[in-house]
Each structure stands twice: as C-alpha cells, then as structure tokens.
Amino acid sequence: MEYRQQLRQVLTKLERIVLEQRQAVAAGGGDPAVFREAVARLRVALDGIGRVGFVALAQAGEESAGVLERAGVRYRFKQAVAKEWMTIWGKVTVLRRLYQADAGGPSWVPLDGRCGMAARFLTPELERLVVYLGAQLVPAEVEASLAEVLPEPVSRTAIQHVLTAVGGCAEAQADEVEVAVQQAAPLSVDGDVLVTSWDGVTVPLREAAPKRGRPAERPGVEDTRQMPTAWKEAAVGLVASYQTTAEGPQLQDVRYEARMPEAKMVTLMGRLAGQTAAALARGQYRQRVLLADGQREIWRRASEQPVYRDFTQIVDFYHATEHLSQAAEQLFGKSTPRADAWYERWRHRLRHQPGGVAQLLRSLRYYRRRLRSDRTRHQAVSQELTYFVHNRARMDYAGYRARGLPIGSGPVEAACKTVVGHRLKRSGMRWTRVGGQHILNLRVHVQSKRWESFWNWYLQYTDQRSRYELAA
Question: Which helix (H) or strand (E) holds 108?
Fold first, then answer.
C-alpha cells in the first residue's frame, strides 16, 4: 500500500539522519552548537514521520462502499476531495471520499466525522493547545508562542476562529458543561466550611459612552460627544471549600464563575446557586457562608435563592473598611491625623471586638451631630451610617473569626484580577459582551483547575455532533 512505502521512506530517512548526526556529534569535539543542530535535524525528520503516520491513520477509517445510507437517506459516492488539516507535526493533505444524495443537497464526508474533523481545520490535539493558550494570551501571543514549538505556524485568524467556536459552544451548552464538570471534578468535600462569594470588576466594552471630563464651556451648549469605550461592571463569583485550622480557614478547593456585564448579575447568581446546591449534596459542611459586599440589591437577590436560607451572611471586611475610610474622611478631613487615628481605631475594633459595629454606630452618630453646619459632609456621613446600619447583622467579625469563618473576599478579589483583569483589561483592549464571554467561559475552567474535565466534555460533544454534520 502507498502509506507503507511512504513510512518506509521516512523511516529510512530518519535512520540515515540519526547515523549522520551521530558522526557529526562525535566529530564535533563537544561543541554544543553541533549537538543542537543534530537535534534540530532529528526533529524535522520526526515531524515528517508524524505527518505520514497521521494520514495513514486517518485513511484507515475511510469508506469504500459506493452507496451509504444515513438517517433513511441513500448517499452515493461522487468524488474524492482533498482537504488540508493542521496537525502538531505540520500541515497534511488528506484525500476523503465525498457522498451526496441523489436528490442533491449537502454532501457528506464520512471520514471527517470518524476522525473528529468535521468543521475543523486544526486537529483536536492542536485545537486543545490553541484554546488553552488563547484563554490566557491574546491571539498574537498564541501565534508567536506556537511558532516557537510547531513546525508550521497557526495563523491568528485560525486561532481567533477556534476561540470563538469553543467559547461559543461552552456558552450555548452551559447546562451540559456544568453537569459534565460536576460529574468529573466536583468541589472537594475535604473542607468543613462552604463559602459562596462574588464581586464586580469593570471591563472595557466596545460600546459608546458619554464623554468624560470637562463639560462644554459655552452657555446653553450641550456636549453630545461620545467615547468609543464604555466601562461596565462584569461579575466574578466562586464556590469554595475551606478547612478550619488553628491558623485560620484554609482554602481547599474552589470553582469560579464569571460573566460579562449584565443586569443584576442574573446568570452569575443562578449558576453560583446551582454549584452551591451541588456542593451541599455531596459534602458535610459544618458551616456555610455567603460573603459579598454590602449592596442591598445583592443581599435581596441572594435571599431569593432558597439554597442560601441557612447560610451565615457576611459583608466582606475589606468593603466594610472602605466605607469606614470614607466616613473618616468626611468626619475629619482627607488624610488628616484625626481621620487616620479614628479609622485605625475603629478598623481594629470592628475586626476584633464583639459588638464592634454597635460601638461604631454610636461614634458615627456622635460625630455626625457636630457637622450640622456642613450639609454636604453631614449627608455623606449619613450615607455611610446607613450602610453600617443596614449591614450590622452581617458584621460580627469577631464572632465569625472565633468560629473559624473567612471574613474577607480575598479569593474572589484575586479572581477579579486573574479570571477577568489579566485577560480582558490589557492595554488598548475593548470587547463585545459576546466576545468577552467566550474568553471567560474558557478561563473559569483553567483557573478552577477543571480544564481537563471541560475539554473532555467538548471532545465528546463535537464527536457526537460530527456524526450528524453534513458538509456545505
């Protein structure tokens, strides 16, 4: 057969190259450059074997019948059609038999489906590498990185196409993905505390936004100019298991979720609730925590989820101290010694003393009464006071720490940077909501260490789809 002759040729060539390069290395006097050149020639030969072997394996699944039946329709062999596929050994050309129904319509190439290559240019092995890198790097960097390790470069256009296809598939089949990941890599049950948390991070959108900065100077003239970039808040959440120790709560396992800007974080909240319910169904968590900032809308929406009914609600300590700092500046002036001293005193009491928030409220009311002549500052302090009043039941930080509970959203704050910021907020970037979501759909699995589970699902999904997909 032809492939046997080709294999013999490339294997004979490999043997010749190895013998020649052995002699070159032996005569090179220990020169590292000679050895590197020998390895480079060996690699080229091995890539050649890989290409021949790949084509031989692919054509082993080819059909030979003249007529095939599919879904009750008879397809007749029309012609052999060559197609280029990109592999980890370089580009190959595969000759495939094309079939078509007598009545016309889309053609069918059985070999494409049997090799998992229907609607693909990159082989699944190379596609996985491209998507994994693309979840972390921009396409230009993926292209440059692959050019260093592959015999032929993958174009930026192909990289972008694959990222769109896989990220879009993850979005369209989100429920299936979640079931598969839960089955293959559920949250660890080694911890005794379950924590659900979320936060927001702004991202640059390719949408018009009112121009910021100095307004129009002419009286009666309205500045209607628009900026090409709108900064909107994306949402990042997590479900994590912790183990209480003498040194404090230790993170055991975590799953992330991230969504591009959407009203009231509807999708994020629903998916976090689903992941939380799945974790509770498997693990015996002694304590359960809902950790977020103090926005009333967030807690109202959380209360609508039955899964959080018996969770301890905690306002993230960092967000609480941000409001404490604002109150200090309004009471005593920005960056003044009195403001700094008041802030540090109440930050310590809020964190360590039982009933610290009640004492803080008394202090805020006491100093606010001295601001009656300054209506602006009085109003600002009142807003901060309202924040602490509404969240006082979620600010027993000394009690939470005594129970071994986390009080800070450090992991979700970090996730805002690692899941979203490091990929979507690089210099000059602007995103559509759909395009950004495609990338986030990939990054959450990489950052959650669930990449293998996700990719296995994707291969199974595309394999099943390939069995029914017709050519154009």
Answer: strand 107-108
Q: What is the pTM of this model?
A: 0.90
Q: What is the mean pLDDT of residues 65-77?
A: 93
Number of domains in the chain: 3
Same domain, 194 and 251: yes
Q: Cα–Cα distance between 409 and 198 in angstroms, integer?
A: 8
pLDDT by residue (tens digit) across 16-43? Answer: 999 999 999 999 888 999 999 999 999 9
Domain residues for the domain of 93 are 73-173+450-466
Instruction: Give 3-state DSSP helix, strand, coil % of the chain, rounded to 5.
Output: 55, 20, 25
Tokens coding 157? 């256009």
In a domain, 439, yes or no: no
Q: What is the mean pLDDT of residues 345-357?
A: 96
Does any domain span residue 66? no
Helix (H/G/I), strand (E/B), else coil: 290: strand
> Do 237 and 319 sit in the same domain of this protein?
yes
| In a shared domain, residues 346 and 380 | yes
What are φ and ψ of residue 320, in 5° steps? Answer: -60, -40
Residue 418 in 3-state DSSP? helix
Average pLDDT of span 112-139: 96
What's the one-letter identity of residue 402? A
Closest of 311, 236, 235, 248 to residue 280, by C-alpha: 311
Instruction: Write out pLDDT tens, residues 49-65.
Output: 999 999 999 999 999 99
Q: How far apart are CA 124 and CA 282, in angstroms?
A: 33
